[in-house]
Amino acid sequence: MLLAVEEKDREIRIDKYLANQMPDSSRSSLQKLIKEEHILLLPGNTALSKTPIPVKSNYKVAPGDQIMVELPEAVKPEILAENIPLDILYEDSDLIVVNKPKGMVVHPCPGHYTGTLVNALMYHCKDDLSGINGVMRPGIVHRIDMNTTGSLLVCKNDYSHNYLAEQLKVHSITRKYRAIVHGNIREEQGTVDAPVGRHPIDRKKMAVNYKNGKDAVTHYRVLRHFEKFTYIECQLETGRTHQIRVHMSSIGHPLLGDDVYGPSRCPYSLQGQTLHAMVLGFIHPATKAYMEFTAPLPDYFRHLLEVLQG
After folding, report:
1. Does pLDDT of 304 surpass 90?
2. 145 is known as an active-site residue
3. 15, 65, 94, 145: which is the annotated catalytic residue?
4. 3-state DSSP helix/strand/coil percent for the chain, to nearest 5?
5. From CA 191, how far away is CA 232, in angstroms rounded?
6. Rounded CA gap, 67 and 26, in Å?
7. What is the pTM of this model?
C-alpha cells in the first residue's frame, strides 16, 4: 500500500497519520508495524534518501512524503469445533436461530479463538455452514456484541446466506431489542437518525460521526419508567456496530452497565450493557414465508427489572 501525504496532514505523527488512513487498523497494530520496519518512508525531500527507509516511531509526516505500508501475510489460526451447548430457537436445513448468552463472542478474533459461537456451531452443524464470510466467520450473517444477549441468525449454505444478507442490506429484517437506559425518557417514542462511524480519537469506539459515518437509524419506545432508569424497546432500521449503544448515549440516555459509552461506574453488579436482541423476523430463503422468533429475556435482565420496580 502506498500513501501520499497531503498538505492538510503536515506535522501529524506517523502512527496517527496511518490510523487516519487505515481506520480498520488499531493504533497498537500500526505501532507494531513501524517497530518491525514494515512501514517505509520516501521523504518529500528525496535528496535525503532516494530509496525507501524504515520510518521512526516519532516521525511527523510532511507534504510530498510517500509512505509504503508492507502488510505481513496474515496467518489464520485453525478454528476448532467445540462441544458448547447452544440455546436453539429454530433450526432447519437452511438456517439456525440461536439465543446467544452474555459473555460469548460471536466469531473468533484476537484474544478469543476458542469458546465463541462459531466454535459451538462448527461442532453442532459439522460442515453445514455457509462459507461466504470465510473460515473465521462460517455461517455468520450478522453479529451482536459479546455482552449483548439474544437472537442471532446463522446460515447453513451460501444461497441462504446471500438471500438473507440482501434482506439486511435493504433493512427488511425485523430486529427488536430490549434495553434499560439511564435517565427518564420524557417522550414515549422517538427516532435517532444519526450516522455512526469510528470515533475520531478513540479508534476502539464508535460514535455519531457526521463526517465519516454511515447512515444509522434507531427507533425506540418506552415500555416502563423507573425512578432513575427507563426500560425501552429499540427497533433497528440499520445495523451499524454498537448502533443502539452509541445512539442512546448520544441523546443522553446511555445503556445501564455500558462502561464504554456510559458512566464508568454502575450501581448494579452487571457484565456489560443491558441489551437483549429479543425479536428477529425475516423471509425464509426456501419457503419465502415470513418467520419471527422471540428470545426470552435472560434471568439477570428479568431480575434487574424486578429490582428497579421495587
Report:
1. yes
2. yes
3. 145
4. 20, 30, 50
5. 12
6. 18
7. 0.77
